[in-house]
Each structure stands twice: as C-alpha cells, then as structure tokens.
User: Which sequence fits this backbone?
C-alpha cells in the first residue's frame, strides 16, 4: 500500500469553532422534533410538551463533544504519521499474547464456579455468555468461514429449543436423547432453507434468511396447538446428571443424595454452567477440526473467491449447504440447552434482535476468529449487565457500541485473518 | 366481489406507502451497494414528527385540514432529511471502502439506536391522534356491502403519484439525477470527472429519507396510531418490495411495493390475517428463486 501524504497545517481555533458550530446546528435540527418536543397523553388526548433545557444540554454536548473529538483525532493522526514514518513494518502474525489467550480464557472459565461457588449471579451470567459464545461459533461457520450472510440464525436456535421442549413435554424424552434429534432437526431446516436460496448473491441471501427467521417466529406465535402460541411452552424438564436429578432430597436418588452432599440449588446452576462449557468446547474443537478438512478449506476458499473455486471444481452449492447445515445444527444444540436451562420458552426469545446480537458477536469479534467470538460475547453480554443501573439506556448504548466498534475496527476486535493452511515450501518466505 | 374491490383499494394504498419507503432502499443500494437497515426507522421517526406536528397545530388552533397537512408534510420532510443525512455521515461514511459486512452491522446498530432513542424520548406507548382526514366516497353497494374510498386513501394515492412523477423527472432529467446515476455506475470515474461523490451520496440519503418522511406522515393520517416499533416491519416489507421489483430500479420499487400491498390485503381478507407476513416473505423467496434479479431489475453480469 502506498502512503498518502497530506498537506499538514495546524488547524486554527476559528476553524475548529466553525466546525463545532456546524455540528451544533445539526444537533439542533435533530433534537427539536425528538428531544425539544414530545407529546404526552393528558386526559385521553395528546398534548405537546416542550423540553428546552434537555435540548440545550443535547446541543451543548454536540458542540463540545465535536471540539474534543476533532482535537483527539488530530492528535492521533499526527502521532500516527510520525510513528509510521519511523517504523513502517508493523508487527506481523499473531500476537503471542493472543495465542495463549485461548488457554487463559479456558482456565478462567473452568475455575469460575470454583472461585464463586455461592454467587448465583456470576455463574448465571457466565452461562449466558457461554450460550452466546456457542451461538457465535455456530454462526461463525456460516458467516465467518463460508462468508454467507445469515440474518435469520435465531430460527435454528428456535427450532432446537422447540424440538427439545416438545419431545420432553409430550413424549418424555430426556435432554441427552433429544440433543441429537434437535440438532438434526435444525440442520434439516438449514438444508430446506439453503437448498433453494444459496445460489443467491450475498445481500439477497441476507434478506431471505431474515424473512425465514420471521416466518418461523410468526408460525410459533400463531400455531397455538403446536407451540403454545405467545404463551410458549412451560415446565420443560431440566437436564439430569446421568439420570440423577437436581432436586431437594426425596424418594428417588438425587444428585445430592447419591454423592452424599448437602442439597443446594446452586448445584444445578453449576452443573448447567459446566454443561454449556463442555458443549461450547466441543463445538470449538469440532469447528477447528472441520477447518482442516477439505470441506473446511473449501468454505474459506469460497468466501475469498467463488468464481475461482468453481473453476477448481468445487461444487459451490453443496459446500455452502454443508456450512449452512452445520451452523444450523450447532444453533439447534444451543437452543436445546437454552430450553433446558430456562425451563420455559416463548417466541419472545427468538426475535430478530437476537439474530442481530449473534451476528454482531461474530462480526465484532472479527470474522472467522474463534477467540474473537468469546471476546465479543463478553463485551455484548456484560455491557448491558453493567448498564443495569440505567437499564433504559442499555439497548441505546448497545446500538451505539455496534456503530462505534465498527468505525474503530471495521474488521472486528481481533481483526486478523489467519489462513488455516500455509504453504511452507521454498519461497514461502517466513 | 365487493370485498375484493375494497381490498384492492386498501392494498393499493398500503402498497403506495411501501413503495415510497422502498425507493429509499433501492436508491441507497444502487449507489453504495448496502442495505440501509436504518431506513425503516427513519420512516418511524417521521411518523413521530407527524404526531407532534398535528398535535402542535391543533393546539395552535390551525383548523384548516389542507394547510395542516402541507405544514406537517414540509416539517416532517425537512427534519427527517436531516436524520437521513446524519445517519449516513455518522454510521456509513467512515466505513466506505471497508468490508461489505461492516456497514451492514453499523446499520443494524443504527436501527437499534434509533428505535431506542425514540422509545426513550417519546415514550414506549402507542400514540393515537384524532383522525385528521375523515369521510370518504361510497363507490357502490353490492349485497349490502359498501365499497368505500376514504379521503385519506385518495390522498395517499395522489401524493404518491405526484411524488413518483416529480422523482422520475429529478432522476432522468436534472443534473443531480445524472450525477446520481453516474455514481451508481462507476464512483471512481464519476469522481475523476469532477463530481463530488460524497455530496451526491449524502443527497441520495436525504432524498430517500424525504420519501420515507412522506410515507410516515401518510401512515399517521391513515391509521392515526404510531409506536416506536413500526419501522422494523415496514422496513423489512419495503425492502422485500425493492428486491421483488428489482433492486436498483425505481419503477421496480414502486411496482414491488404495490404488489406486496395487494398480496397482503388479499391474503388477510381471504386466507388468514395472522399469516400475512409469512405470505409476503414466502413470495419473496419464490420470486428470488425463479427471478433472482427481480421483476424489473437488470440481470447482474459477473466480472472475473
């Protein structure tokens, strides 16, 4: 890449003030209809209420925020110019810290319930993070590796969850019996959707998958005999420890009585945590293995250049279909765990917002990066949790964070695409 | 028969609104090749501005309906265009020339942001206003069923027709239209010919927002209720319309919008109201399977 050299001249204060004033003018125009004015229901009819102080605060924030931002950007650019001039060869390859990051994260994950055995909140939140990690890894196969934009991933998650819920409440199947069936069911849905649509170009595929996600949700809401409609399905059995339930001591042997432990409701929580951890690690091992197989390499090749792949004799649709089905299956597994953990599911949990969050995890993490998914799940789950004090603003901040992270690092937090295979022969030069 | 005629009128009205929103999607897709996910929320913002505008005018004692409509339309178009400009400037322009997925994620973020901003500043509850335009024309009565054309429906169809006419003129005859079309074809070449590409893209976003603003005001007049979530569903349907008509094609967007509106109205009347969204999306999938470039779109040529 060539380096562009811009004419450098110090920005005068007047120029900065003019720039900030322009931004302030925009904020006035943006703020008047939304912040300055609002309508309030008074005695059955709407009345206009003005909030000029709030508008003034908003405009002032825009003015000074812009001043500060411009200054910070100028400083940063000036610093970067001197730095790139000094050392243009940036560090290449994986940061050694990141290489160990995976093991470090695994250690932390394994130790967490041991360190906080009594803290329900920590274990519960960590379980939520791991569900998203698993969903992220599943979607990563589709979006990150195969490069297919799927905006309806939550549909497969829902298929898995409802399959387990119905099998267990109607036919008395256990968690472990249902798991493969639900996975197969989700994969079947993936093939059903993928078969006709995977030859479409990226954005068309995106909107078709989005439509499919909505179709599944609408059917779940309206087909009351099957899914319970908007009320969902309740009292879904919890997973057992090789047949030993987590219950207060009774007639049958329970987990606590079998191991001669004192019963505590936390035991199930910790068991669920390790269960999803095991499922997630299995997913990870599976996906990293798949990447080394011919089909995995074909996924990545298709992402990079479809036409070249076709010329090399790769059957594009079948390879894409395999990625789609595999991703769907992993989503289905996560769905089964979700249903088992909650004990209650309803279409509310499978809205488009959920798909957007999972996609955001994959893209923010850096597409194709397994560790990036973990990092992004942590950020996206913990950010709203930390913001619980100002709960109203959490989704607002979530949206803003998505935009800002994209602008800051368009390739994702761990923006770096390591080829799975590398040619080590003569001339490879490393 | 009477019901069919009534649903035809309702469907065309709904379709006109979808078409207006769809033009915004199709233009933005044509010029920068991205799905502007926040476009549906721009339409929602405009509907809220319309609610505030009508309430304000009622409080100020403006009783003339045409004057009120024109004022609210102008206000909504002006303010919503600023929103359209800002969305592009903040969320998309920094990402130009980046990967294809980055602006899409940013757009989804912007959509979530706008929805929650409106929920926070304007309240989460449904906002009803008293009907602005009452009455209609009874066209004919068959077996005791009267087919009625409401004035608000007439207004929507007329405004849409007028806007389509003006818009076609703008794109095909004016110098801005030429710049816009040339940006669609080749941005680098356009820039080399001395045209400010960034400005053209900004104007495209503002125009799209202005049309969505008109749609927002029309829907407020037609239904009289607004909430912060209307943008999502309308946005997806309008995008479906744009794809169905052939993305990048302006008449296609309008045609797609009308088709989606008609399908929805007839499906709701004759088959089932609950599954009307399923019908829309299924038709989208079918259309893409058999005619991937849409009804009026040009087939894409892959360059190696």
Assistant:
């Amino acid at each position: 890449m060539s380096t562009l050299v811009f004419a450098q001249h110090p920005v005068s204060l007047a120029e900065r003030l003019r720039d900030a004033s322009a931004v302030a003018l925009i904020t006035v125009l943006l703020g008047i209809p939304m912040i300055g004015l609002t309508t309030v229901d008074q005695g059955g009819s709407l009345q206009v209420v003005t909030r000029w102080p709030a508008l003034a605060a908003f405009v002032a924030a825009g003015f000074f925020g812009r001043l500060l931002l411009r200054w910070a950007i100028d400083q940063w650019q000036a610093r970067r110019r001197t730095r790139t001039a000094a050392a243009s060869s940036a560090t290449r390859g994986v940061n050694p810290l990141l290489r160990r990051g995976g093991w470090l994260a695994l250690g932390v994950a394994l130790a967490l319930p041991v360190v906080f055995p009594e803290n329900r909140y920590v274990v519960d939140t960590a379980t939520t993070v791991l569900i998203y990690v698993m969903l992220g890894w599943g979607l990563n196969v589709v979006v990150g590796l195969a490069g297919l934009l799927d905006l309806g991933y939550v549909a497969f998650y829902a298929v898995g969850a409802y399959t387990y819920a119905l099998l267990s409440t109607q036919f008395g199947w256990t968690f472990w019996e249902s798991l493969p069936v639900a996975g197969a069911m989700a994969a079947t849905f993936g093939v059903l959707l993928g078969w006709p649509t995977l030859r479409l170009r990226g954005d068309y595929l995106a909107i078709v998958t989005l439509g499919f996600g909505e179709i599944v949700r609408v059917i779940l809401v309206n087909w009351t005999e099957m899914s319970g409609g908007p009320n969902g399905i309740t009292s879904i059995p919890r997973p057992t420890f090789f047949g030993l339930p987590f219950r207060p001591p009774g007639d049958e042997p329970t987990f606590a009585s079998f191991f001669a432990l004192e019963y505590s409701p936390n035991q199930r929580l910790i068991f669920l945590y390790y269960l999803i951890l095991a499922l997630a690690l299995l997913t990870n091992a599976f996906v990293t293995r798949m990447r080394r197989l011919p089909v995995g390499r074909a996924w990545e090749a298709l992402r990079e250049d479809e036409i070249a792949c076709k010329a090399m004799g790769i059957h594009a649709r079948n390879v894409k279909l395999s990625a789609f089905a595999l991703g769907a299956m992993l989503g289905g597994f996560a769905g089964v765990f979700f249903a088992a953990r909650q004990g209650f599911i309803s279409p509310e949990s499978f809205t488009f917002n959920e798909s957007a969050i999972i996609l955001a995890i994959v893209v923010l993490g850096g597409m194709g990066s397994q560790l990036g998914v973990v990092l992004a799940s942590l950020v996206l789950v913990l950010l709203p949790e930390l913001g619980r004090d100002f709960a109203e603003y959490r989704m607002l901040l979530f949206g803003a964070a998505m935009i800002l992270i994209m602008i800051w690092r368009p390739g994702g937090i761990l923006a770096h695409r390591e080829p799975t295979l590398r040619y080590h022969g003569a001339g490879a030069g490393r | 028969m009477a019901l069919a005629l009534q649903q035809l009128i309702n469907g065309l009205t709904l379709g006109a609104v979808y078409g207006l929103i769809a033009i915004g999607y199709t233009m933005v897709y044509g010029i920068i090749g991205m799905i502007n996910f926040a476009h549906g929320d721009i339409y929602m913002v405009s509907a809220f501005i319309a609610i505030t505008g009508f309430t304000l005018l009622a409080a100020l004692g403006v009783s003339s309906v045409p004057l009120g409509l024109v004022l609210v339309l102008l206000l909504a178009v002006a303010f919503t265009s600023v929103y359209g400009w800002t969305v592009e400037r903040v969320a998309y322009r920094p990402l130009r020339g980046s990967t294809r997925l980055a602006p899409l994620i940013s757009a989804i973020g912007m959509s979530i942001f706008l929805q929650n901003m409106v929920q926070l500043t304007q309240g989460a509850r449904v906002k009803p206003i008293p009907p602005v335009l009452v009455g209609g024309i009874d066209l004919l009565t068959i077996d005791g069923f009267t087919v009625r054309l409401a004035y608000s429906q007439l207004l929507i169809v007329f405004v849409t027709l007028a806007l389509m006419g003006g818009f076609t003129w703008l794109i095909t005859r004016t110098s801005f239209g030429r710049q816009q079309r040339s940006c669609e074809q080749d941005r680098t070449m356009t820039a080399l010919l001395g045209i400010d590409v960034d400005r053209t893209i900004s104007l495209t976003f503002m125009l799209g927002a202005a049309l969505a603003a008109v749609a927002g005001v029309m829907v407020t007049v037609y239904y009289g209720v607004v909430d912060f979530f209307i943008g999502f569903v309308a946005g997806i349907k309008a995008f479906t319309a744009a794809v169905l008509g052939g993305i990048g094609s302006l008449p296609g967007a309008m045609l797609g919008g009308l088709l989606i509106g008609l399908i929805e109205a007839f499906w709701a009347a004759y088959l089932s109201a609950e599954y009307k969204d399923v019908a829309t999306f299924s038709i989208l999938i079918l259309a893409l399977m058999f005619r991937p470039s849409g009804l009026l779109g040009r087939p894409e040529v892959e360059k190696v």
Remarks:
- Confidence is low (pLDDT under 50) at residues 88-93, 426-430 of chain A.
